[in-house]
Amino acid sequence: MPELYESEDFIYNRIPIRIFNHCFDGVEIFTPAHWHRNIEFNLVTRGRIRRIVDGIQYDQKEGDFFVVNSGELHADHWMEETDHFEGITVQISKKFYGTFGLGEKIFYLTARTITRTVASQAFAILREQDLKMKVITLTAKEKICFCEETICNPDVCPYAKGHFDRVNDAVYELLTSTDEMSREVLEEQARKWNVCPFEMALDVSQWVDAVICDYNYVFDPTAHLKRFFGDGVKGEYLFLIDEAHNLVERGRTMYSSSICKEDFLKIKKLVKYGEPKLVSALESCNKQLLELKRECDGCQILNSVSHVYIKLLSLMTKLEEFIEECKDEVIRKEVLEFYFGIRNFIYIHDRQDENYLIYSELSEEGKFYLHRSVSIRQDVCRNIWGKQIVRYYFRQHFFRSIIIKNCYLQQRKTMQSMRNLHLNQAKDY
Fold first, then answer.
1. How far apart are CA 385 and CA 429, in angstroms?
2. pLDDT tens for residues 352-398?
3. Domain range spanning residue 299?
4. Is 40 part of a structural domain of the chain?
């Protein structure tokens, strides 16, 4: 809902607070729906006013104090045309309250589906104790897709066709009707509005307080959420990592890559008719890999594969052109999978450092592989995963209700407006 966003530029950069004195009569008591990242404190000094926050109506009278949290969609309205309203509004800059070490969003990261269910239940328990927090659980595209095959093409998928014409209304209705966005809730909403459930879930995730998802959505360089962790994107996030002892091995897999010589021949057979430039690029790459294969005696450590890397860059351009123009979905799907493998290999090459090992392997089946494997140790994790992460919070069994509940209650007493979790006992990784 970018069209409802209110600019939060402060006139005086060194003063992170804006104060408004209000005095309105009748129909002038009206503020259209909008949102901002600032925290907003409102005090009614005289008269009355109707406030609408995330679709919920609150009638305020003289002496009432009201807080609008960061990111909440809110509006003001008169109750009767004879109403009079006077009040004070104080807005505190997001940058200012960010200096207290608090985050703007919580990412609860898990490695298994069952632990995502447990995380959702934990938030539900906290919500029963009056916690005000919107939570979404992200499910993999292949699992939440309504179609038999995950083909993101408007010509094939009825949910992709016209998706962007309907998704904003679907997101708005969902955010203003519930605080719990489970897989079941997301699927129901997507069917109602005939939109892609996965893409809708990603849009919703921008407006919630907590995101429950797999490790990959944060740490995997090929699968991370670019809207939160892409280049140039900044955010003050808190990370709750379940079973964090598994993260090192998962990270090693995420930041390693391989290509198989036989895959190049397979794709060549699929596209050999009518695609001479692509076939030529595939043959060139295969030739480079064949030379390495002849030198390989089972397994061989290599100092550099830059000559292969250059050929792959050229191949990528040809593959992109083919994928864009290909009408055969079966062939396109196989080529697209091959393309992602090549892209990942190039991505890892660009980030290669002293922690990487390059080696070739001739399998028992006769297939030839080229590997880039990373040795991820705890002392190099911060360099690899640094990004815009404020802190890493690792616990093996950390989301215990009493601990988190006490943290929230303590926070709400000191500053009701700040809903971001602050874990005093967490280990800074």
1. 11
2. 877 788 999 998 888 999 998 876 544 444 444 443 333 333 333 33
3. 257-374
4. yes
